[in-house]
Amino acid sequence: MPTALHEALSRVEASRTVDQRDAELLFDARDADLERLLSVASALRDEGLENSGRDGVITYSKKVFIPITFLCQDRCHYCTFVETPGGLLAQGKPSYMSPDDILEVARAGAAMGCKEALFTLGDRPENRWPSARAWLDQHGYASTIDYIRAMAKLVLEQTGLLPHLNPGVMTFGELQALRPVAPSMGMMLETTATRLWSEKGGVHYGSPDKDPAVRLRVLEDAGRAKVPFTTGVLLGIGENNAERAESLFAIRASHERHGHIQETIVQNFRAKPKTAMQNDDDLGLQEYVAAVAVARIVMGPDATIQAPPNLTDANELGLLIRAGIDDWGGVSPLTADHVNPERPWPELDDLARLTRAAGYELRERLTAHPPYATDSAWVDARIRPHVEALAAPSGLADAAAPVTGRPWRAAPVTRTSTPLLRRAAADPAGLDDADYVELLGYDGPELEALAAVADGLRVATVGDGVSFVANRNLDSSVVTDPSLIGDLADEAAALGATEICVQGAVPAHLPGSTYLDIVAAIRARQPGLHLHAFRPTEVADGAARLGVSVREFYEALRDAGVATVPGTGARVLDDRIRGLLSANTDPPASAWIETVATAHSVGLRSTATMVYGHVETPAEQVAHLRALVALQRRTGGFTEFIAMPFVPVDSPPIAGARPGPSVRESRALHAVARLVLHGSIDHIQAAWTKLGLETSQAVLLGGADDIGGLLLDGVIAPEAGAEAQRSLTIADVERVAAEIGRTARQRTTDYGSPTPEQLAFARRSDAPPASRLQLKVGARQIKLTPVTPLAEPVEARTA
Asked: Which residues, 6 or more positions from 134, have their beta carbon under 8 angstroms from its beta carbon?
């Protein structure tokens, strides 16, 4: 009678796909069953290679290891990479590699023809070790991430090596900050087995950055940030087959949403001396090879599956090829594998010979795999010349390309004026609708000229800064407890926020007065915070539950302490489009307009918004902008305009929708918005969480003047915000502004300047250092890293 494993093998042989339950069974394939599994995996790999035009090719990256720091805040039970400050001191090593030492390794690698600099390090050592924090402070770096960004740029400019960054857990803002200096990044998922992190005795117990939920969030954020990303699983650390399958399917699901997983590493546990797992058995060969084959089948033919060649004996590497790998990862002719120092790299000639013996050719690639290296959507414009200089037309490495440093800067642009642009410059808001539609289609030199006209108008209207507000989001659909809301308000103020933004329909079982209770809870704790709260749909909801008019509800919110309201939910002010986007659950465009007009009439100013890049036409975009101008002339209540690109992964499926706007469309729309809104709405915001920082900089150079909020998360309940885990620091905004020749300016919600009273907490002379700030919440002492408001003009610090 066939066993469950044999039935699973038959299914995968027939379909060459696998579900999670069958994957769990296939990990147990051995001997003859393993041979059947390898045949399927190998055929899938060959299909993918043929699809990509690299038939018969297995790749690798010629690299150097740059261990930026051996310190880490985690305590993984199998790791020999990590040191303690005392251990480093005994070896005469500093907390971090110096720039000179980094360049010495990178230059030596470049001289040997390496093209990748793999930055490897422990997770956020400054959170655990005072010596790490002191080193960063002494050398002028806000964080380890800040330091590796500077060093990646240094390596690019001085040596030409392409950085691949592995700093562990990164926030969305940090991914955005690192993207302009590295063509690719990575972080091993390792496992989704939460028990190995949460239960005493688990290999990740006591390691804050090894929470699977946190690491899965990094995968999602990397996809949103358009970062070519390397991840993978570490097998043999205590996980079971169900958890192995779950981990691979989690990686696949993230890639299906974003398309960013450039390679999946399947790594086998090797016991190391002087660790808590030194007496554990290594992962068995057949068990490992079966897992590699399952990974290939789960990820599919077009995925890249990597196995480190130094963690398997040379005479057994052919089995990994049969299991479906198509990449050996980074191999260094110069530096050791600092994570597995007991396992030397194979000589490249030997690796080529062993690969050839299995019927494949070994070819060098770049740190960004070919589909990403050749696609401008995935490579920041500032490092595109660095990548192109080392890439062959296929996207693989050009073996003959010299590895040499190049300046890190955006390419020059050319501009071509047109009669229409000359009319736009003379009378920005006076063109016909057809004229604006034509401008929305501009590209190339004409688009650059349009951006220049809009940018000149921006300077004349609001000056030359990039403004931002220090704020925190609160999702009132998930957080309604007054005590917790008060705690979050306290934390926001302690972090330096001047605004708290509240959005979200309160749960259906609660009365409409809950909206007012939320306001009261914030006002009771932090009367000085500017309260920006409740969208038109939530106002309509609250009014209906209380049986009062929308005007009466707005008046109640105003009297309770709401200062301004979000103008979100505008989508595109066309009922056909609104019906398509929300299955007719949104109110008609006229209802949105009248609700916002009512807010303005009771003294509550609002933002104005648009969601674009889905099913609307350029003419409908222009009509939307015209409707905002008409309402502004009637009420004068809009503070700013925010154009938010459609992000399909955040929305239910919409028939006929585009997959979001192109960068060209975003640039044209923001520039045209500056023209149409001239004289009506002065401020135009770059929605950085949706645009990404690179495109935000592009629109800031073409009419936009504001980057929105920092979106501070805190530590009490970081998930309480609508865009949780996506935040910036003031240093991030300063850098974004400086890179485009501008200066950062902190503002209030309504575009004023924060008063000394609003900034009193962080400016107090007796305020504790950021790294040691404590906030008492009930019986808890919470450690915070506050926003430090600017104590001197930004202009003086970024000149």
From this structure: 95
447: nearest Cα among 424, 474, 477: 424
d(CA 748, CA 736): 19
Longest dimension (CA), the chain: 84
Residues above pLDDT 70, as percent of the chain: 94
Angle, vertex CA 691, rays to CA 687 and CA 692, nearest 5: 110
Residue 261: CA atoms inside 13 Å, Cβ hemisphere, count? Answer: 30
pLDDT tens column, 171-204:
998 999 999 999 999 999 999 999 999 999 999 9
Q: By C-alpha distance, which of 347, 337, 294, 273 is closest to 317?
A: 347
Task: Compute the Cα dihedral for 192, 197, 198, 200 and give only its sign.
Answer: positive
d(CA 353, CA 361): 9
Task: Round to whole Å and give the CA distance between 167 and 216.
Answer: 15
**What letters, b where the CB count within 10 A reaches 16 and e where it falls short, cover 637-662?**
bbbbbbbbbbbeeeeeeeeebeebbe
Q: Using the structure block, give the residue that is written with the tokens 């070994």.
A: 362
CA dist 389 to 403, 711, 760, Å? 8, 38, 50
Cα 618-619-625 angle, rounded to 5 deg: 90
* Whether 183 contacts 227, CB under 8 Å: no
Quote the tokens at residue 585.
């659950």
Write out pLDDT tens, residues 227-271: 999 999 999 999 999 999 999 999 999 999 999 999 999 999 887
320 touches 289 (CB < 8 A): yes
In terms of Cα–Cα distance, which of 609, 601, 605, 607 is closest to 634?
Answer: 601
Verdict on whether the full-model pTM lies above 0.85: yes
Residue 167, token pair as written in the block: 């700093």
For residue range 309-338, list pLDDT tens digits in order: 988 888 899 999 999 999 999 999 999 887
Q: End-to-end CA distance of the chain: give it in Å, rounded.
A: 77
